[in-house]
Design a protein that fits this description.
660 residues; alpha/beta; 8-stranded mixed sheet; 19 helices; binds ligand 6R9
Length: 660
């Protein structure tokens, strides 16, 4: 048995804020003791049919009740939840709240220019969605048809998503930063009938001509018959193709403010979302209706302690799964208000997140560590707004280094918010390892404990056997189906099986390495292709990165393993310095020493390369690019379409050559 290594900060235990129980002005916690979580967890694993069956009847309004909860198995890749049940997904996220609390806020729109946003009530949102659905139906969209959505973060993107599902159609949101080629690939794979876009988008005052990009893509998309164009600008400049393109503002208002919902089976696809693995073409991950909505609802309610009176602030983008689940479906399932944030953390300056929280009295805040690092680097002086409405701070997308976790907790949360490091994936639909904010003691750097229904396993990557008990390290897998798990890959069930089920027969394989410490806490080590093995010591790149980031000069770090004759693999570290720091021999020595002292001499980087990092638009570091450049294979970089700034590749190549 290997002792799972932890640093001093990681051994800290942070209790949920006591004010959750002491301050009567706060909503009563949805779960109020760790024992309650444990009992519910145990029931969810031992008797999933009862656990999820009861919950599904409680939180979903069904058009026809179901007679089976779970059928099929993970192993056979044929599992289904509530299969003979029927429901109207749009009714569940919209109509029922518009009926019960019509004047409650559904959407808090924070426009790119501060103070140009507005609040939209459930009553208004229902009318907007019905009118848009009417327009889509008039363009021939019906049950099962696919609709591509390529839009900025404006309320109309939520309207477009909900209008699509109201008709029983299936949306595929394509992040509005993808190129025309990437958009066309996705539209073609999904076979979309209609593309919904806007003339332009604004981010940090920059104007991006979205419609022009769509115009480059659509001629290569034979399935597309119409393009619906929302006018985002004051004076539209987009040119319209006769017979194909229609202004939203010309057609949508012509339709009735109420149309009925299309009822679908529980296993009807709700949406497709394309995600890329480390290689190969993007996969259209398929989420189905009832199980996905249930997972979104349950994780919002318990992980974030979301209440219908809350105002959820997720600054992500609906182009990614985080936006689907924690901007749109989860908060709206609960009848809460949800933020649609069009801007950036740095516009007009680094106070933007916190002025947004103050303006709308947001109760939860959910972003990726990359944003937290950016703001930490910018400095504490920007965190000066009244953020006392916040109760829960969430982190998602990559491991959060303990020092960033502590900054989030101390500086943003003023030590009186719970910090939830939430681990999940496009494929899992909702959180699978995350604290219950109101009860779970957290450890900085650990995503803590499995969510309800997640039967986790740490698997030995060599033998494929489960490593039982605590103090084990291997790859992270799940043993039983859970409601919001992706059911298949669009037109590629074989790919689904090959990617997720074949690598470790009997398990859903996440692709991530993880350790379970002596308290049963889960530490995500990063994708397993990011594991380095130095002289027999198995290390995750993120562990070394976290060590480097504790040094005052380091803004970001990315570590890759390169083949080494002596040690098997050696560590190469790419480092982006904070402003005001310069590369010199002294600093290099200090950085090496930081890793040596925090992890051990075997982990010290053999080479330090000072350059910018290749990040995807969602903030993940593409280590594959770093590995290829180090191997001198810069002509074989593969797909770089998801890079936020493809130009960094040249900087990296130069930096590597300089370091040789
Ligand atoms: C939600 C999302 C999934 C991959 C996943 C893992 C990484 C996500 C994490 C995390 C450590 C966390 N990841 N959350 N790693 N701690 N809290 O990001 O989905 O874009 O599909 O990415 O992101 O490597 O496998 P997706």
């Amino acid at each position: 048995m290997t002792k799972v290594t932890t640093t001093a900060v990681e051994q800290m235990i942070i209790q949920p804020p006591s004010r959750f129980y002491e301050d009567s002005s706060l909503p009563k916690p949805n779960i109020s003791s760790l024992d309650e979580y444990k009992a519910m967890y145990e029931q969810s694993i031992k008797n999933p049919n009862k656990f999820w069956g009861d919950m599904a009847r409680e939180v979903i309004d069904w058009d026809r009740d179901f007679s089976t909860v779970l059928q099929g198995s993970l192993q056979a890749a044929d599992f289904a939840w509530f299969a003979d049940g029927m429901l109207s997904p749009c009714y569940n996220v919209l109509d029922r709240h518009a009926i019960a609390r019509p004047d409650a806020t559904a959407i808090i729109y924070e426009a790119d220019e501060p103070n140009q946003g507005r609040h939209i009530t459930y009553r208004q949102l229902l009318a907007d969605v019905c009118q848009c659905a009417g327009a889509l139906a008039s363009l021939g969209v019906g049950k099962g048809d696919r609709v591509a959505i390529y839009m900025p973060m404006i309320p109309a993107v939520v309207v477009a998503m909900l209008a699509t599902i109201r008709l029983g159609a299936v949306h595929t949101v394509v992040f509005a930063g993808f190129s025309a080629e990437s958009l066309a690939d996705r539209v073609n794979d999904a076979g979309c009938k209609v593309v919904i876009t806007s003339d332009v988008s604004y981010r940090g005052s920059k104007v991006i001509p979205l419609k022009n990009i769509v115009d480059k893509a659509v001629p290569n998309c034979p399935s597309v018959t119409n393009v619906l164009v929302f006018q985002r600008s004051a004076a539209p400049t987009a040119s319209m193709v006769d017979g194909r393109d229609i202004w939203w503002q010309d057609i949508v208002p012509k339709f009735p403010r109420y149309i009925p919902n299309v009822s679908v089976s529980a296993e009807h696809p709700l949406f497709l979302l394309y995600t890329s693995g480390s290689t190969g073409k993007p996969k259209g991950v398929v989420h189905t209706t009832a199980g996905y909505l249930l997972g979104a609802h349950a994780t919002c309610k318990y992980v974030f302690d979301l209440h219908p009176t809350d105002r959820m602030g997720c600054a992500g983008d609906v182009g990614w799964i985080t936006g689907h689940t924690y901007i749109v479906y989860g908060p709206l399932m609960m009848g809460a208000a949800t933020l649609v944030f069009e801007s950036t953390p740095a516009y007009p300056d680094f106070t933007r997140y916190w002025s947004t929280v103050e303006r709308h009295k947001l109760t939860q805040w959910y972003v990726a560590p990359t944003a937290i690092r950016l703001l930490q680097r910018a400095g504490e002086s920007f965190v000066k707004h009244d953020t006392s409405s916040l109760r829960v701070l969430g982190s998602v997308g990559e491991p959060i280094a303990p020092e960033n976790f502590m900054w989030y907790h101390d500086v943003v949360g003023k030590k009186s918010c719970a910090v939830a490091d939430t681990y999940w994936q496009t494929e899992t639909g909702s959180h699978i390892v995350a604290p219950i904010s109101t009860v779970t003691p957290t450890k900085p750097g650990s995503a803590t404990l499995p969510f309800f229904g997640i039967d986790l396993a740490i698997v030995d990557p060599l033998t494929g056997k489960e490593l039982e008990g605590n103090d084990v390290e291997g790859v992270l897998a799940v043993k039983q189906p859970w409601p919001s798990a992706a059911r298949t890959v669009w037109r590629g069930h074989d790919r689904y099986i090959d990617t997720y089920l074949k690598p470790y027969p009997g398990f859903y394989f996440t692709g991530d390495g993880a350790a379970r410490d002596s308290d049963g806490y889960i530490w995500i080590r990063g994708r397993v292709d990011d594991v380095v093995n130095i002289s027999g010591h198995r290390l995750s790149t993120s562990e070394i990165e976290a060590a480097l980031m504790t040094h005052a000069a380091v803004a970001e770090a990315a570590v890759v393993g390169v083949p080494d004759e002596l040690t098997g693999q050696a560590v190469n570290a790419f480092i982006l310095l904070k402003d005001g720091f310069e590369v010199n021999a002294e600093l290099e020595k200090e950085l090496i020493l930081t890793v040596r002292t925090q992890i051990g001499p075997f982990a010290s980087p053999k080479k330090l390369i000072f350059s910018d990092l290749p990040k995807t638009r969602s903030g993940k570091i593409m280590r594959r690019i770093l590995r290829k450049v180090l191997a001198g294979e810069e002509d074989q970089l593969g797909d770089v379409s998801t890079l936020a700034d493809p130009k960094v590749v040249h900087d990296i190549i130069h930096a590597v050559h300089r370091a040789h």
